[in-house]
Amino acid sequence: MRRLITIPISHFCEKARWALGRAGLEYQEEAHVQVIHVIAARRAGGGRTVPVLVSDDGVLPESGSIVGYAAQRAPADRAFEPDDPVELAEAVRIERWLDADLGPHTRRWTYWEMRDERELAEAYNLTGVPDWERASFPVLYRPLFEAVKRVLDVTPETTADSKLRVRAVFDTVGERLADGRPFLVGKRFSRADLSFAALAAPAVTKAATAASVLAYRPRFVERAEAARAEHDGEPANH
Ligand SMILES: N[C@@H](CCC(=O)N[C@@H](CS)C(=O)NCC(=O)O)C(=O)O
């Protein structure tokens, strides 16, 4: 059985999950909290980031290679790579651009929103992790999140910059779709659309996620709504 090593809330991991699911490929997810994921990723044969896919054909330590692996195995009615080689190159180019210019910035923004939100982190961050990681999370939370903030350089200044970068990517994608075309490349859903949806999700679903997971934390919902209003051009009150 294929194994997919993940951090459950990671949107790069969601890219990989989505691609494997779309292709109808079975896998067992092995989810870990941040920092502990490095041990799991290395043990599986990857580097320090997740997702890592372990399959009979080898170890794939990058979301992009996992998406390619899944796309090559997808049945025709679930294909998500264009047949045309020029369009395929364009879809991969857009995916790489989103990996570099969108993913790290929606992630930093999310960690900023989760700062000092231990209850939110517990509700949101631990899906599927081993019992011992869940049980130790109350103690691990502070050092883990300090480490994540350091590694990802999460500060008020960098977060403000990341929000601008997210907005710039949304504007570029919006321009590309401005003529009414439903997909970023070609005439059907492709890995470019999949990547945009997965990596943009933290920026557009924060309010919905927070509302469903943590209806009892209105402060987080307020912040997310303020961010959304700000993006829509309305003045934010928070
Ligand atoms: N280029 C990698 C990026 C993956 C990535 O940044 N994963 C994050 C989780 S969202 C990670 O493992 N970060 C841990 C670290 O950098 O130590 C890919 O596409 O798989």
3D architecture notes:
This protein is of the alpha+beta class. The chain has two domains: 3-78, Glutaredoxin (3-Layer(aba) Sandwich); 85-231, Glutathione S-transferase Yfyf (Class Pi), Chain A, domain 2 (Up-down Bundle), CATH 1.20.1050. It is 61% helix and 6% strand. A four-stranded mixed β-sheet has the order 2-1-3-4, sandwiched between helices. Helix 1 links the parallel strand 1 and strand 2 (28-31). The chain is globular, with a radius of gyration of 18 Å. The model is unreliable at 210-218 (pLDDT under 50). Bound molecules: glutathione (GSH). Residues 7, 10, 12, 48-51, 62-64, 99, 107, 151 line the site of glutathione.
Mean residue pLDDT: 88
Q: State the major sheet.
A: 4 strands, mixed
Order of helices and strands: EHEHEEHHHHHHHHH
Q: Which strand order does the major sheet show?
A: 2-1-3-4
Give the helix tally: 11
What hetero molecules are in the model?
glutathione
Portion in beta strands: 5-15%
> What's the number of domains?
2
* Class from secondary-structure proportions: alpha+beta
* CATH T-level topology of the largest domain: Glutathione S-transferase Yfyf (Class Pi), Chain A, domain 2
